[in-house]
TrEMBL record:
Its EC number is 3.7.1.20. InterPro entries: Fumarylacetoacetase-like_C, Fumarylacetoacetase_C_sf. This is Fumarylpyruvate hydrolase. Gene3D superfamilies: Fumarylacetoacetase-like, C-terminal domain. It comes from Marinomonas gallaica. The keyword Hydrolase applies. Residues 28-232 form the Fumarylacetoacetase-like C-terminal domain. Pfam families: FAA_hydrolase.
């Protein structure tokens, strides 16, 4: 006899490059406006703001293939479906109020992801002072690559981050332009949430976010981590 009234939700996992094990996803944290130019683009002052956070449910995660084109479904209830390319950090350790050294040691590896956004719904939520979930935490809103273990790539402090639509570069920056670096983000996040192994952190997007429509092809990369291609369907 089952212990459950309904079937339990399946685990969400990501492959790990070069290993047979899978990375189990616990929570997906997102950092808002962590590149100065994007903060200005969205009306903020990057010299004044501490990092702020919001979450996507782990069910939002969509695995993308590194060879070929992954379909990205255009969501319901929006007329402005926008891309944001981001470096993803995967944690193998957790805790509260971590030091910088502890934060750096907590990093298991990296991936590349898209924080896909129903911008019209997010903008309306901002105007009304409402939560962002409808604009940010919907199905397929967090496409991600497999995880690249930290041992297979250097500690990331620099590297190109770029997104193109139909072959035209839309976002192009460098990880050196992060307002808050990877370890600093983990420290600040651990002051507000107890972190656990399996947590993912989407570390923010550069400027020039914009919309896509059905039929568009998105190409995204972080130098030294991964690159992938998706088609909006």
């Amino acid at each position: 006899m089952s212990l459950y009234a309904i079937s339990p939700v399946a685990e969400v996992t990501l492959p790990i490059i070069g290993r047979e094990e899978l990375f189990p996803v616990r929570r997906v944290y997102c950092v808002g406006r962590n590149y100065a130019a994007h903060a200005r683009e969205m009306g903020d002052d990057p010299n004044r703001d501490l990092p702020f956070f919001f979450c996507k449910d782990r069910s939002c995660v969509q695995l993308v293939t590194l060879n070929g084109v992954t379909p990205l479904p255009y969501p319901d209830a929006t007329e402005r479906f926008e891309y944001e390319v981001e470096l993803v950090v995967a944690l193998s350790q957790g805790g509260r109020n971590l030091t910088l050294d502890e934060a750096q040691a907590a990093v298991y590896g990296y991936g590349v992801g898209l924080d896909m956004t129903r911008r019209d719904l997010q903008s309306l939520a901002k105007q009304k002072g409402r939560p962002w979930e409808a604009g940010k935490a919907f199905e397929f809103s967090a496409p991600m690559t497999p995880i690249v273990p930290r041992g297979a790539t250097p500690v990331l402090e620099a590297g190109k981050i770029e997104l193109s639509v139909n072959g035209e570069v839309k976002q192009s920056s460098n990880l050196t332009h992060l307002t808050w670096g990877i370890a600093e983000v983990i420290v600040k996040l651990s002051e507000q949430f107890e972190l656990y192994p399996g947590d993912l952190i989407m570390t923010g997007t550069p400027e020039n976010v914009g919309p896509v429509v059905i039929g568009d092809t998105i190409e995204a990369l972080v130098e030294g981590v991964a690159e992938f291609k998706m088609e909006v369907v």
